[in-house]
Amino acid sequence: MSDALINGLAGAGGGIIAQLITYPLQTVNTRQQTERDLKKEKRKLGTIEQMCQVVKQEGWGRLYGGLTPSLVGTTASQGVYYYFYQIFRNKAESKALERQKKGIGDGSVGMLSSLIVAALSGCVNVLLTNPIWVVVTRMQTHTNILKKDHSNRLATPALEETVLSAIEPFSYSTGHAIQEVYDEAGFWGFWKGVFPTLIMVSNPAMQFMLYETMLKRLKKQRSLSNPDNNGVTALEIFLLGALAKLGATVVTYPLNVVKV
């Protein structure tokens, strides 16, 4: 089994676990990003408050709305990304070694090359998996749309909430979301938001650039203090990955809001 395939499978598995743990937060985050009809004077709910409100008004199941296509999307997205990342990374490493033989560089992949590798992998991933995320976003936010459609049809707000909470779990499935997107915009509707999403490849690109840079420095520092041990532990890899993702997310979050 090739390194690229192993990386793809490992990335898909890790992505599924992370998705299952964090999905309720993602649902609330998407709703906050798409909420436009609140009056300015009305206090906006915090993340925990909004989670509690969703559970109270719509049930626990709504926090996991769109989970199935999201897991499919995560599996595909992570698998595709890590697979192509390893392929492009191997090519970059080969070129770095060739340059070293010519007396140029130290044989390692530089920061710019790491950025390009991550960006190319991200572009391939976006073009292949964008339709899945369009459907996922529809399923995470459809409750607000449904309320708008029914807001003037039911006698009282209480009756409206009762009816909506009763029909929502059964009335909107992955198939409904797909059909809705297709009816609205046709085949190319599944690539809505693809341009800001392509710009968003700067997020994983920055993440991997930061990760590779920090990892290289950590190994170098460790080898100087102990030449026989320049390895890193799983916990250190986790922390480096978390820090890299945090930095990339802070920088690119406005683009994510536009995309959604």
TrEMBL record:
The chain crosses the membrane at residues 109-128. It comes from Gossypium schwendimanii. Keywords: Membrane, Repeat, Transmembrane, Transmembrane helix, Transport. Its main location: membrane. Gene3D superfamilies: Mitochondrial carrier domain (1.50.40.10). Pfam families: Mito_carr. It is found in: Membrane. Coiled coil: none annotated. This is Peroxisomal membrane protein. Solcar repeats lie at residues 2-91, 109-217. GO terms for cellular component: membrane. Belongs to the mitochondrial carrier (TC 2.A.29) family. It is a multi-pass membrane protein.
